[in-house]
Amino acid sequence: MTTPVRTDRAETMQARDIAVNVPTVTVDDPVAKAVRVMAVSRLPGLVVVDARSRPWAVLAGTQVLRLAVPGAYQEDPALVRTVDEDHADVFWQELADRTVGDVSPSRPAKPVTVRADATLLEVAALMARQHSPLVAVVDDDGVLVGAVTLERLITSLAVFNADD
Amino acid sequence: MTTPVRTDRAETMQARDIAVNVPTVTVDDPVAKAVRVMAVSRLPGLVVVDARSRPWAVLAGTQVLRLAVPGAYQEDPALVRTVDEDHADVFWQELADRTVGDVSPSRPAKPVTVRADATLLEVAALMARQHSPLVAVVDDDGVLVGAVTLERLITSLAVFNADD
Q1: DSSP of A29-88, one letter per residue?
Q2: DSSP class of B10
Q3: Minimal CA–CA distance to B51: which of B31, B27, B34?
Q4: Across the interface, do B96 and A159 touch by the CB < 8 Å criterion?
Q5: How many CB atoms are closer than 10 A to CB A82?
Q6: B61, A69: Cβ pair inside 8 Å?
Q7: What distance in Å separates the CA atoms of residue A74 and residue B62, rounded to the nearest whole number?
Q8: Considering CB atoms only, which of B13, B129, B150 is closest to A89?
Q9: Is A159 within 8 Å of B4 when comparing Cβ atoms?
Q10: A115 to each of A14, A121, B127, how far by Cα in Å?
Q11: A64-86 pLDDT, tens per residue?
């Protein structure tokens, strides 16, 4: 493994240049905390890490929401319509005390991660392929060093210079 | 755990109560504009409307990004790594001048919409099921009246009262 020397390519952005620090949760945290952490930080998803700060899963926002919506409601729109309105604001309380690990698949998909020196194209292609608006950035040991959000990626691309 | 006091159902929120006005695009708009509109408005997705302001598609943010990432890059991580870094920031220019209609499936999935009187549970279940962080709210004629974002949904739920 060689470390790229960047004399002439210094202006090309890499994942590390647009990554931000993000709060994380573990599989032992309650679902309600996971939902809150994501909302308070205005993140489009959430990184679940293991005890060594390595991403165990990178969840899109809708997957975090999914943790809080009882499965029967997700699958059956007709059932959802039978829930009276007084209960329809508090459905999430059914699962909020369970942990992220309790309600996650036992074998989550490979975490959506890139190395710190990934190009923006690599990040974009990964987001598009995995339908994930959040990508975890890891170091050589697989330890989380930050994350790239879809919003940050887009605003970092030259899209805004196209005809402005 | 405290349960909100609900003297009647007037206080139960519906989609209309948390919907926000969102900018839209049509199939004739360039992809670059679609990406910009989403980013400038800090939306997690985008509503594509027809000439009568009815949702034609509700795209998650990663689907909007997908419009701007040439298909070959999405499918082939090895190919992405061969793109030199100078080009890796401007890949999107290949497709930016094409229109949303040009690069969308000819038969998009049924738009992710709810009626204005949908409960928050209905909105949540739909987002979770369709993996869409944005839901369009329509009136009786199917005309767009607003949209609910995942962030707005979460902050509107009582999640924040659970143990704060």
Answers
A1: SBHHHHHHHHHHTT-SEEEEE-TTS-EEEEEEHHHHHHHHS-HHHHH-HHHHHHS-HHHH
A2: G
A3: B27
A4: yes
A5: 7
A6: no
A7: 21
A8: B13
A9: no
A10: 9, 13, 30
A11: 999 988 888 888 888 888 887 77
User: Rounded to two decimals, what is the model's pTM?
Assistant: 0.88
- What ipTM, to 2 d.p.? 0.87
- Residues present in chain B in total: 164
Nearest-Cα distance to chain B for A88, in Å, is: 5
All residues of chain A having their beta carbon less than 8 Å from the beta carbon of residue B149 are none
Token pair, residue B63, equals 């689907």
Contact predicate A131/A58, CB 8 Å: no
8 Å CB contact of A69 and B131: no
Q: Locate tokens 């997908």: which residue?
A: B66
Kind and range of the H or E run holding B152: helix B150-156
Q: Do B89 and A119 touch (CB under 8 A)?
A: yes
Closest CA of chain B from A10, distance in Å = 10
Q: What SS3 state is found at B79? A: helix
Positive or negative, the CA dihedral A147, A151, A157, A161 is negative
Q: Specify whether the CB–CB gap between B116 and B19 falls below 8 A.
A: yes
DSSP state of B26: -
Query: B127, A62: Cβ pair inside 8 Å?
Result: yes
- DSSP assignment, residue B20? B
Residues of B in contact with A36 (CB under 8 A): 159-160
Of A44, A61, A121, the CB nearest to B83: A121
Nearest CA in chain A to B65: A128
- 10-residue mean pLDDT profile of chain B (164 residues): values are 46 91 97 93 96 96 92 83 78 83 83 95 94 97 97 81 48
Residues forming a β-bridge with B134:
B149
